[in-house]
Design brief:
By secondary structure, the protein is α/β, with parallel strands linked by helices. It has one domain: Rossmann fold. Helix content is about 40%, strand content about 20%. It binds 4'-phosphopantetheine.
C-alpha cells in the first residue's frame, strides 16, 4: 500500500496543483493533500478554508483525501503512515530548494522518498503567489484557478467583479 502526501501551502490552490493531484493520484494507492498550517506565515486563506477548497476540488478523484498538518512534515508522515512525498518541479529555480528539503526529510526519516513530477507545461509559470499578486490588483485570474474559487479570492481583497 503506497501512501503518499502532496504537501503545500495551497494559498490558494491553482490549476497547477490540481494537475499534480490528478497525475500523482494515478501512481500511488492513496494520496493525502496536506495543507501546512503555518501560523508564522501570513496566509490569505485560513487552513480550514484551504482544506474546504481542496475537498471541493478533489471530491471525485479516487484515492485522494485532504488533511492539514502542523510542524514537521516527517512527523506528520510518521503519524499517518505515509512514506512518499510528491512535489512538482516547475523550473530549474525550484530544484535547489526542493533537493535540500527532500534530502533533509530523507535524513530525518529514511523510509521517506520524495518523487518529483515535472509540472504540466501549461502551468509551469504558475504559483499561488502569482495568483495573489494578480488578484490583489483586480487582474484576470481565470486561467490560474478553478472558476468556483475566483470570487472567494477577490473577496479577500474586497474586490467585487
Ligand atoms: O507550497 P509550499 O509552500 O512550497 O510548500 C512547502 C512545504 C509545506 C512542503 C514545506 O514548507 C514543508 O514541508 N513544511 C513543513 C515543515 C517542515 O517539515 N520543514 C522541513 C523542511 S527542511
Amino acid at each position: 500500500m503506497k501512501k503518499a502526501i502532496y504537501p503545500g501551502s495551497f494559498d490558494p490552490v491553482t490549476f497547477g496543483h490540481l494537475d499534480m493531484i490528478v497525475r500523482s493520484a494515478k501512481i500511488v494507492d492513496e494520496l493525502v493533500v496536506g495543507v501546512l498550517n503555518n501560523s508564522a506565515k501570513n496566509s490569505l486563506f485560513s487552513v480550514q478554508e484551504r482544506v474546504n477548497m481542496l475537498e471541493e476540488l478533489t471530491k471525485d478523484i479516487p484515492h485522494v483525501k485532504v488533511d492539514s498538518f502542523d510542524g514537521l512534515l516527517v512527523d506528520y508522515m510518521r503519524e499517518c503512515g505515509a512514506t512518499i512525498i510528491v512535489r512538482g518541479l516547475r523550473a530549474v529555480t525550484d530544484f535547489e530548494y526542493e533537493l535540500q528539503i527532500a534530502q533533509t526529510n530523507h535524513v530525518e526519516y529514511p523510509e521517506v522518498e520524495t518523487i518529483f513530477l515535472t509540472t504540466n507545461l501549461k502551468y509551469s509559470y504558475l504559483s499561488s503567489s502569482v495568483v495573489r499578486e494578480f488578484a490583489a490588483y483586480g487582474g484576470d485570474i481565470s486561467k490560474f484557478v478553478p472558476a468556483q474559487f475566483i470570487d472567494r479570492i477577490y473577496a479577500k481583497y474586497n474586490i467585487k467583479k
